[in-house]
Amino acid sequence: MARKQRYIPPSPSPTLVFITCRTIQGRYLLRPGPDLNDLFLGILGHVQHRYQMRICGLCVLSSHFHLLLLVDDARQLSRFMCWATIRTAG
User: Fold this and answer.
1) Going by CATH, does the domain composed of 15-89 fall within 3.30.70.1290?
2) pTM exceeding the 0.85 threshold for the entire prediction
């Protein structure tokens, strides 16, 4: 089943959004530890710099992760999430 489209209402200031992204079938694929922390934070840092995204909060669990982001528009969020999920899946 497809995910519902994200909608960010037009606003002169950035909008705070909460994102949850889970692994396929909710499997425990994200093994906690220093290696995952370094890899995940490195990927997010690279993508954050690329799309000028402000990350306010982050929580990584075994089967999913949560992000609290300040975004300017839906296109910025879409591109950010596309790059972030592609890089974390590899």
Assistant:
1) yes
2) no
